[in-house]
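Dear colleagues,

As part of the handover before I leave the project, I'm documenting each prediction I ran so the next person doesn't have to rerun anything. This entry is a single chain, and its sequence is reproduced below.
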Amino acid sequence: MVGVFLAPESPWWHVRRGDKAGAKAALLRLTSPDKDPNFNADETIAMIEHTNEMEKNMSEGTRWTDLFKGTDLRRTEIVCFTWIAQTICGTNIMGYFAYFMQKAGLPTVQSFNMSMISLALGLVGTAGSWYLMQKFGRRTIHFSGGCTLFIILIIVGSCSFAGTQASNWAIGAVLIFFVFVYDFTIGPVTYSIVSEMSSTRLKAKTIVLARALYNISNIVVNVLTNYQLGDANWAWGAKTAFFWAGTCGCVVVWVYFRLPEPKGRTYGELDMLFEQRVSARKFASTQVDPYGHGRVADEKAAVGSEWKEAIPHNDADVVDPQNAAPNAVITPAVELTRQIFKTLVDVYEERIYRIVALIPAEKLREEFAQMQTSPTSRQLIYAFCAYMANFAEASTNANCGSTQSAQMDSQNCYLDKTLLSLQRDRITQLEHRSVYTSFFLYGAYAGRDDYRQAWFYLREATTLFMMLKDEDRDWFDMKTRKRLFWILVVSERNRPITLSVTSSSYPLDGHDDLGLLHLASVFRPLDEVFFAVWNGAAQNCSKEWLIQLENDVRTALPTDLELSNEEIANARISQFWLQIKLWELFPRFGFLSTESVYDCLTFRYPILVGKDLTILSMKLPIQSLQIHGVGMTEKVFDIACALADVLHFVPQSASHAELSPPDYLTQLMLLIAKLPGGSSKFIPLLLAKVNELLPDLLEHVCEAIQMPIPTNHNPMSPDTRFVYEEEVGRGLHADLRRTF
């Protein structure tokens, strides 16, 4: 009890609660940094956060039902049966050792003495298992132990037929060896397997369920044993060993086919192996990169073979990995011509770099020239191409084929080539290119609406950035590092954050990075405390704190921005979007009222933001918004959704002299229809919301955006309804109704 009281909480538990300081303190208590001079607590915390986010990707939620979904079903089976195996492999004989020996024919005193000897050897076996688990795998130990116990039980049962004094002593001696083998193998290794096989997010629930099943099986086994050994019942005596040899044999078969080998694996690697449904017998030999897409070595070889057969070659114009240096990692031949790459870089330099200064175009050209000899350069360039395929001009002019369908699949083409080229050493031999590769993959997946995978790679990029040393490498100087830091900060500020912003964070150059400086100032007030509240990890916050936070975001930008139209659109609309996201917390905590000196405490706040956004969209050319891709569409969509929610509660007066709140909603929908993905995805969702909350406004809106009026009151199919609930939801509307 004293030891439990003094033991620190798990760093994993602190990370899931958003308490990085607590996680670091717990980690330092659980480790001995003096024994490893290279130990870095911050890097370990970042790895824990990365693994936790990866598991969220694979299985959202931590409900009891999640134990039986997806990859967690297999993990639940392994943990539960591993613990049940302890009770059905014949170990009940140990609990009834003295009684069993008496029934086998030994005197009472000698039975007790043999029992004491077995317990002493069991203690020796348990101590010896500590050494054994360092040298051999869990699966090997469990399987070998099960096979040995099976043989011992067969011997015990066979000796019972002799019925002599010598056979009784032989049974006693063999059972003592049984106790030693159990405590040397299956007994202690079970606890290691149970803790390693469950996902970290579901570990507590998995272990609770498994232990409950263990207790139930123990009850059944004890009842059976009493019947088997009792003179008034079955009176099997030593022949009972045959029955438990049968159950032990079942355990051995299950272990061979179902129990994986976790030794030497991180939690992240185990997650990827389970996600890829790798056979239990291949866990130990399968190579997997927890920072990559999760493709295993065999799959890479198979897909690579398909690419070699399917993709045509042009030796004069194609980067040919076959001519790479001997130490380079050979990847499938690809049709990335110099002309395609030049087109992509030109588009990037013209449209992207002047807004978000990621990598200078001339440095990208240098990396392209090194693709044949540098695996990390090859990964970077492929990821860059996948990222650039988000933009219409790039997709049209630079694609993987000549047909229209090939143009539509250009992003998939570049993504596949990137994932095929990912190598484990991009993590073990960390460098700046790996961070950019992960960030470009984030942008590529976000552009195709695969946000789970996108956020995985964003978390990977931030984790790798934190692990980088503070030193110049090639073109990655301090100025570039500062830019990348703030780009990552801004990008992850609507998810649980990895990069903390403090007064000592990298300062930006006010002249060269003015656009990024303004954008960062909008996101700077959002710290870990805010995200703990936003994500529900913290249940309490004060009205005054929220009011101050809203004021900090609303006043973060000057009235006049001396920036390009594209930079203004990015900064202003990001600011409006954050204002709405902050305001959504006010009704959640019941802080709204019909009238207040603070606009953020009233229902009309989204109307004011919608008005400002409408005016801004009229002043800026539509191209300045379209250039930002579907991310810009989503921000405008969120603002329009909030506006539709409040219009249901705020009475409106029609006026032909000026724009009214319903007109703001109509204008925002017109804007969304012109943005990437707007007309195909977001407008139908908004129409569904208007039809549900503002049916009288539906005809006017459909006429304005030139969309057909739905012919029934619920135009959504079941699939559309699911997407609607995912994207729109009813959380804000429910909070407003409760407050109103």
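Residues 297-476 form one domain. The chain has four domains: 2-58, 78-282, 297-476, 543-739.

All the best with the project,
I.
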